[in-house]
Protein 1
Amino acid sequence: GGEMSAKQIVALLVGAVALLATACSEGDTVVNTPGAEASGITVTGTGQAFGVPDIALITLGVQAEAANVADARETAAQRAQAVIDSVKANGVADKDIQTTQFDIQPQYDFSPTGRGAVRSYQVTNVLSIKVRKIDTTGKVLDDATRAGGNNAVVRGISFTIDDPTKLREEARAKALAEAKTKADQLARDAGVKLGKPVSITEGGGPVPLPASALVAPRTGDTSTPIQTGELQVNITVTVRYEID
């Protein structure tokens, strides 16, 4: 009849198995044993490298308040331009000066009943300054705050390294060495032979350490002291080794 016999079904199954075996021998089909990916020794190593910053990032600007928006904006514009001129005079390029905040906010006087009336308007203009000649950071701050006068505001300062490639390489080598040491000990203690690394995952990056940077407007002839501290680069690697 039209139905397949038991012998025909068995013959087809045997043929399918033979084809699969042939495919495996030719490298076209890969069969993973359950749990094979998780076998081996997996360890994590951490490396650190330290470097002296070569760039200062300063956030500063001006803030002006007046009874009307026009006067507040005009004062802020004049002072902000004076700050920009000062920063440029200290060698900071146009590409390293960026406006990061500009806003106009009404200032209220609140009555005991909780109802407020507009007292004045405040204009804020803040810049992000990248100082590449890091030894001039104190002077840039002093001159900028002097140019801004009583309208000057300094929001903060941080430090970075323009090209941390070498620090990353140093930290990465230390992380790999630590991972290898851990793997060697685990294999030795377990009585097995450590094989080759079959997977490596990296994470981490530059981490700013606290810098004792005093940021204050210039008073008299005393320059603002700036301590750049140092930057730390952390690299973490997770390595899985085979067991031979």
Protein 2
Amino acid sequence: MPATMGTVGENLRAGREHSKRTLREMSEQTKIRSDHLEALENGNYEVFSAPVYIRGFVRSYAAALRLNVAEVLAQLDEELGQTQRFKEHPRLGNESKGVVDLVMLHLSKINWSVALPLLLLALILLIAVFSYRIYKHAQSSDPLKELGPGLYQSHSGGETLPIPASTNK
């Protein structure tokens, strides 16, 4: 195989021609559509919707041709850096990240096998503290404060029942 010089597409085409294979044969081997392989060889990156496809296809194609994949990808990054469309990695969405996205991102980083038992322990401790405070409050309050005066009121005529005499003899 001749030394790499020129663009990534020229190097891919030279590698394919040196191995005496057709685009169709390479397509069958790499499982990449032949029109995509042809676009890569022609340097027509506008066919692809995102740089991730270009990089993945070039990586697979270069590996199938037994080229130095690291060198080819470095050269590809340099070429893509010169284009306006593929200069920056595209955003996955058009909207800016909101609070929910930020919270979900941080929740996805949590090791739940550790966090869940700790949360359960904290919940049990919290319930125990509140139960103790309610119990202490109930002990210190007057149990008869809610009891109305109705049990000891006099009946018609103002007379009350006599107090029973003790039977201690």
